[in-house]
Write a structure and sequence with these properties.
472 residues; 19% strand; Immunoglobulin-like; alpha/beta; single chain; 5-stranded mixed beta sheet; Rossmann fold
């Protein structure tokens, strides 16, 4: 459309609190219409009235989508008086049309109606790119939806090949694995949803070469905001419900459970079977029978964890009131490894113990053989040396360790931290076991658990002394 020539440029005032609208419209007007002069951008009615009085514009373009501007009040105050002035309400959400008001008629019209008289760029040319119709938008959503499903399926297939979890070997692992599988599926879907939308947008909707127009201005979408708040909230609540069900399954009580006391100390595990009178350094359990583990610690916090069982529980120091229970029902015969899952000191990484799941008949045979102690005190002492964690600190061959070596200890002169010396006789050894901090050996720290002496009977201590005597 040919615009009439004018000697004097038309003065335009832009009213918007959004920089994208104001600066973008200024750039378009100044670039496309030499006969237009943008005299200013204001963000409020008061500023616009002041500009109207001082600069007397010919046209005022108002951001129709700007909620900070009261459009009714704006029109009422601008249409007062007798000076010829037009106000255009322009919306970036509908750039094909605009509403035009003047003092005399106060009528709405298409943009072309006022372009014939006022040399301003047509609103339908603010963006040269054609506006996508509903069918085109639906096509993009269908393509993206197919890609999201495909990428999700590929991610789940890849996760299955990685084997993130070891083979389950306890009934408590089943509900936990179901939760893991569901969480992996949701994570894969969310990853695909984000990445596919992002990559698709970058590839399909990238700026074409030579395109210098502004993108569509979007203020927000309340419906979308409600949806993307409600769906994650419902998902979290759903997982909370499923998690509570899984917790109930893993803690279900079996009245015929085998009770085992599990005692952790730096840096070993000890297992006591109070019903069988057995103490050992390896955890043996019959298959398909629940074991009720009473967890405690003699020094710092440890944590019972067998990956194939999935469940984990801390072992806390502090006595009987801090004992924690953990129920495990082995479902597969085999050998596993107990690991400490809580950083507990220098040799934390070596704090392991064998876990052996046996057939019921084999477990009964082992228990019967284990209950009968040897008549040889040295054989018994070797068992206590391993069972009560002495092995973690004291060597039998003279090698350096966290604590003094037992080789050559009995009868020797021991130099203490206070500079005095003492003979390593029976009385000294008994006191060192019952009260580890009483006589600290020079060059060593007092890290021996204070409660260890209470765990040993007088006979067990005497057996250990006999073992030390034999190491001259």
């Amino acid at each position: 459309m040919a615009l009439p020539k004018r000697a004097k440029p038309q003065r335009v005032l832009i009213a918007s609190s959004h920089p994208l609208f104001g600066q973008g419209l200024r750039s378009l007007l100044e670039a496309r219409q030499r006969s237009v002069e943008v005299i200013g951008i204001v963000s409020s009615i008061d500023d616009a009235l002041q500009a109207l009085e001082k600069q007397r514009p010919d046209l005022v373009v108002v951001d129709y989508d700007d909620e900070q501007l009261n459009r009714d009040d704006f029109l009422a105050r601008f249409l007062e008086g007798e000076r010829k002035l037009r106000v255009v309400l322009l919306s970036l959400s509908d750039p094909q049309h605009a509403q035009v008001y003047d003092r005399r008629t106060l009528v709405a019209a298409q943009i072309d109606d006022w372009l014939e008289e006022w040399p301003v760029v047509a609103a339908d040319e603010i963006s040269k790119a054609p506006q996508p119709n509903r069918r085109s938008n639906m096509k993009h959503f269908i393509v993206v939806g197919i890609l999201v499903v495909l990428v999700t399926a590929l991610l789940l297939l890849g996760l299955q090949q990685v084997n993130l979890l070891p083979a389950a070997a306890a009934l408590q692992a089943n509900p936990i694995d179901r939760m893991f599988a569901l969480e992996f599926a949701v994570i894969a879907f969310l990853f695909a949803l984000i990445v596919v939308f992002m990559v698709y947008s970058i590839v399909v909707f990238r700026r074409k070469k030579g395109d210098t127009t502004d993108a569509r201005h979007i203020e927000g979408n309340q419906r979308l905001e409600i949806i993307w708040t409600a769906i994650p909230l419902a998902t979290v609540l759903g997982f909370a419900y499923l998690g509570s069900q899984a917790l109930a399954e893993t803690t279900r009580v079996d009245p015929g459970a085998l009770e085992v006391n599990v005692i952790g100390s730096q840096w070993s595990w000890r297992f006591e079977y109070p019903e069988l009178g057995i103490q050992t350094t390896e955890l043996r359990m019959p298959v398909d029978r629940q074991a009720l583990l009473h967890l405690s610690s003699l020094d710092v916090i440890h944590s019972f964890w067998v990956p194939e069982f999935r469940v984990k529980q801390d072992a806390l120091p502090g006595g009987k009131e801090f004992v924690r229970d953990l129920r495990v029902t082995p479902s597969q015969i085999g050998n596993f490894t107990l690991r400490c899952a809580e950083l507990c000191g220098l040799n934390h990484t070596y704090m392991e113990a064998p876990v052996i799941v046996m057939a019921s008949a084999d477990f009964d045979a082992w228990a019967a053989a284990e209950a009968g102690l040897s008549a040889d005190p040295l054989e018994r002492a070797q068992k206590w040396y391993e069972t009560f964690g002495c092995k973690a600190c004291h060597t039998l061959d003279g090698a350096a360790g966290v604590g003094p070596t037992w080789k050559g200890l009995y009868g020797s002169q021991v130099r203490l931290a206070d500079g005095s010396t003492v003979t390593a006789d029976d009385a000294y050894l008994i006191e060192s076991i019952r009260n580890p901090g009483a006589t600290l050996v020079e060059g060593f720290q007092n890290i021996m658990p204070a409660a260890i002496g209470g765990s040993l009977t007088d006979q067990q201590i005497q057996d250990l002394i006999e073992l030390i005597k034999s190491l001259k």
